[in-house]
Design a protein that fits this description.
With about 110 residues, this protein is mostly helical. The chain contains two helices and no strands.
Amino acid sequence: MYGFIGNIGPWELAFILLVALIVVGPGKLPEVARSLGRAANEFRRVTTGVRKEFQDAMRFDDVQNKTTTTSRSTATYSTNVSDDENVNNNEDVSNTDTDSSAETENKTTEEHNP
C-alpha cells in the first residue's frame, strides 16, 4: 500500500502526518495537502514528458542512423551496378573491335584471294 513512497512504513507515515498537523494546524492542513498533491502531480507529468521526449529523440536517432546506413548501402550497390555496367559496355566495345578486325581481315583476304 505504501510502496510508492519507498521504505516508509505505516508508523513513519503516521508520525509525519502528526508533525504536519502540529506545524501547519488543522485548518490549513487540507489546503497544504492539496497543494502538495498538485505539485507531485505536476512533477510526475513533467517527468513523463521529459522521458517521452528523450525516448522519441533516441528513436529518431536510431531511424536516422538506419536511414544513413541504408543510403550508404544503396549508394554502394548503385556504384557496384554502375561498375558492372561499365565492364559489360567495355566488353561489348572490345567484342565489336574484335569483330571489326576479323571482318577487315576477311575482306583483305578475299581481296587478295579472288
